[in-house]
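During the second year of the project, the team shifted from modelling isolated chains to modelling whole assemblies. The rationale, set out in the original proposal, was that interfaces cannot be judged from single-chain predictions alone. As a representative example for this report, we include one of the complexes processed in the last quarter. Its constituent sequences, exactly as entered into the pipeline, are reproduced here:
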Amino acid sequence: MSSQPAIVGNYLREGAGVGSWLLTTDHKRIAWLYLASLTAFFFLGGFFALMIRIELATPAGDLVSDAVYNRLFSLHGIIMVWFFLVPSIPATLGNFLLPLMIGARDLAFPRLNLASWYVFILGSLFTLASVVLGGVDTGWTFYTPLSSIYSDSYVSLAAFGVFVVGFSSIMTGVNFIVTVHKLRAPGLTWFRLPIFVWTLYATSLVMVLATPVLAASLILIVLERAFGLGVFDPRLGGDPLLFQHLFWFYSHPAVYIMILPGMGVVSEILPCFSRRPLFGYTSVALASMAIAVFGFLVWGHHMFVSGQSTYAGVVFSFLSFCVAIPSAIKVFNWSLTLRKGEITFEAPMLYALFFLALFTFGGLSGLFLAALAVDVHVHDTYFVVAHFHYIMVGGMVMAYMGGLHFWWPKMTGRLYPETLGRIAAVTTFIGFNLTFLPQFVLGFNGMPRRYHTYPPEFQFWHILSSAGAVVLAAGYLMPLYYLGRSLFRGAKAPGNPWDATGLEWQTGSPPPPHNFAVTPVVTRPAYDYPMKGLEHERFSPHRGTAG
Amino acid sequence: MTGSVESVAFDTRHREQAADTFGMWVFIGSEAMLFGSIMLVFLIAHISYGPAFAAASKHLSLTLGTVNTAVLITSSFAMALAHLLSTARRWRDAALALTATALLGIVFLAIKGSEYAMEFHEGIAPVLGAPFTFDGPDPVHAQLFFSLYFAMTALHGLHLIGGIAVVGWLLAFWRRTGPASRGRRVQAVGLYWHFVDVVWVFLFPVLYLIDR
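Output from the structure prediction step:
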């Protein structure tokens, strides 16, 4: 190791001024462009959510009118799904880490990578324009015929923005797929890849194959509103239900676009802070691919009460239960990774453990929804809202925050304040559960989603939920403060502050412009942690055949 | 050596070329899902409303459709020629073949445009609130046929416009592009062009040749 050439340079100091950032093709800087824009959208979407929760603190609609309320939840959904969750981990951490993790100098198409950010910004301008002009009130799902015929809000503008942002996803997806295939370092075989790379690969496949179907359905809506083509209008021979099929053919796989990279992040953090190799590496890797494939076959479970054939419903229900299998495989493997580990509770580890708990909870509540009969009872209630927030916020955002803390020293060359980090993680966990646990009760008792008034008997649970939202907001604002501050005041980070395996830790913090002094050669499996105290387990499942 | 690679990520030109081609195939997979989803919608509607679709299909101009198919396939031939010529490093001829490709693309669009105009005058174009007159069975679902026909062919037309623009861009910077990059770009653009052509090869029988 000592004979290696010194790591010189620092991508943050390579060129100064706004131009060196806005015209960069360095994947690490593009990750920062995304991080800055996504953070803005996260807090904008969060602001809408907070308004919703404040309105729902009382049964009467006294803060905003019903029309404004409809716009609040629509914009909350649209912004959080397409302008935060879908690009979140891939475009920020993925962009930064994918080349580093596979020992490459950059993504395969650096200019395409920059273009994807500009396309993202262009699309977001359309959607933001619709916000400024008066919003959109169809919900994030754009269901016809409300969106195509009845809504008088700025549907076309918002939908066109989402359509454009889809191209940004496809560009990132193509770039990642080609990069993983063509730019792995010598010796880095597929089954030596970190799980984060596997999940980015699975995510990219879904992005590339599902996003165009969303594009098709949004084009047809815009064509109907702007040109009078009636594909979804029964008076013109069309079929409004068709939209739901097309929409969910994208939007259910999109759920896996959102959660898979989070699973990848957790698969990096858990082994590092328990000093154990990831248990059942191969099955975790293949489970990611299985989730990506199954994800395409379950869209009909959103339509159990939409007048879809019962027989189709039975098949979709069965397939939805099947998705639980690879997800459970992952949860068991993560749990077994902790077994006899030397666990320490740094902030990233706290986030990862909270992910494990909340994802499991959210996943199990999903099984209720996959069951045909139960779904009829809780369809379109707060039970559904609680379920997908457990996956999306409790799972995905938790993992995102964990990843951000974990790789913060690598990205910035600075350490974040550990105590504040732990306090923020615990605050988020408490705030999250306080917000969404009551919503399961509300939904089961029949509180429908998307209503801005409700009978007084629901108020107790709504107040709990609204109070939780305030705590949750505090949990998210704290990192904004201390991470931002650490950029300037944080202690200098060493190259490998966590003593982690993985190629990204073998270079400087922050890395030099072209990542590595020499292209690394890989000779060991991923997660080659020492396993102190378990050396006697000669046939340990921890050790793959590749070791 | 590095002068011949465009992206810092690659060590050799050969690997970059392989990555380019692979990337284009992945993108084509994505595009196939775009057209595939709308085509599936069309096929399901066709199965559901067979007689209406068959009657409506007879109102499309088989002659113009056939001519356009020939034009587009010829354009793909010109594109294939451009690829062969650039492999042989006959740059001037390759540029000519590319020009022919783009011109044939424009001819296709012109014929398609005149076809749209005819359909508009005939009153079978249900766009922009134009009156829809159709004297066959089940006019409501005949209208769905035309809605899908316009959506699918317009989407295809947009892709063709994109293709023509990219070929134009390739030609505009032809002199300033190094030989290695020329070959790579022709191959990538060519793949895309052939894909757009293949989409038409599917659209033509599905739309024009029902029950003929």
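The two ends of chain A are 20 Å apart (CA to CA). Chain A has one domain: 28-506.
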